[in-house]
Every structure is written in C-alpha cells, then in structure tokens.
Amino acid sequence: MSLISNNFENEMLQALEIAKSALATGDVPVGALILNPEGKIISTGHNRREIDNDPSAHAEIVAIRGAAEVNNSWRLDGHTIVVTLEPCAMCAGAIAQSRIKVLVFGAWDSKAGAVGSVWDVLRDPRSPHQVEVISGVYESECAALLSEFFKKYR
C-alpha cells in the first residue's frame, strides 16, 4: 500500500516508470496513476493513442477509466492523480468532470498545457469543481524523458 507523501516524489517516480511503458508502443511517454483517498494506487495508465488508434487514450484518461471501473463509479471524489506531464484541455476537463481532488504533475507543457501553461482549466474561477494543483514534482526528469523521445522524431 502506498501512503500519500507530502511531496508525492515516490508516486511520481512510479508514474515515470509507467510512462516508460509507452515507449514500447511508440506512444509519447506519459504516465499517470490514481490514488484513492487512503493513498493506495488503484489505477495506472500510459499513453495508448498509437497502439489503440484512439485520440482520447491519453495517460490520464486511461487511468481515470480504470479508477472509475475499480470504484464502480465515475465520481472520484477525494482521489489524487499523479501524471508526468501537465494535462491538456481534454485531460484537465476529464479530471474536473471525475471530481478528482488533487492533481500532481511533473513537466510543464508549453504547447498544449491546460493547467497553467497555455490555459488554466482547473483553476478557472468559473469552473464548478476546483482541483488542488501541485506542479513541478521531478520536473526535470519528466521533461528529460519526453525530450529524449522527441529527439528521435526531429
């Protein structure tokens, strides 16, 4: 059983390992995990867009679907999601819609980030559900994994 730490470093290290699983499928290496209110990991996910031919198969969406199945409910009140990259607008919306309490992320996404970089979907005062956001956990390690991946395509 994983206990929630104050800085989420252990959880982010686990998310980084999950992200590396995407490399075998040719997907962008982003990993996510969801902790229940007691701090136990109940779901994980990595990007699966390439392998599933599914534009919505981002790590966060995969993990949220798994957590909803485990809980037998779409409501993830009190849960925490840890992800290696700042969520995009789609994923930020899914985090809000699932009622996740806390988002922890590593690297910033200056092109498509929707939690402070380009937009700030989760902290918009008009949003009906507020999510606590913790950013920059193992930021350089998360960014380095992505940079190495994209060097192959440039």
TrEMBL record:
A Gene Ontology biological process term: tRNA wobble adenosine to inosine editing
Enzyme Commission number(s) from the entry: 3.5.4.33
GO MF: tRNA-specific adenosine-34 deaminase activity; zinc ion binding
Stored InterPro entries: APOBEC/CMP_deaminase_Zn-bd (IPR016192), CMP_dCMP_dom (IPR002125), Cytidine_deaminase-like (IPR016193), tRNA_aden_deaminase (IPR028883)
Domain CMP/dCMP-type deaminase: 6-153
Alphabetical keyword list: Hydrolase, Metal-binding, tRNA processing, Zinc
Tagged with keyword Zinc: yes
Pfam family, one: dCMP_cyt_deam_1
Cofactor: Zn(2+)
Reaction it catalyzes: adenosine(34) in tRNA + H2O + H(+) = inosine(34) in tRNA + NH4(+)
HAMAP family attached to this UniProt entry: tRNA_aden_deaminase (MF_00972)
Protein family (similarity comment): Belongs to the cytidine and deoxycytidylate deaminase family. ADAT2 subfamily.
Quaternary structure and partners: Homodimer.
Protein name: tRNA-specific adenosine deaminase 2
Annotated source species: freshwater metagenome
Lineage: unclassified sequences, metagenomes, ecological metagenomes
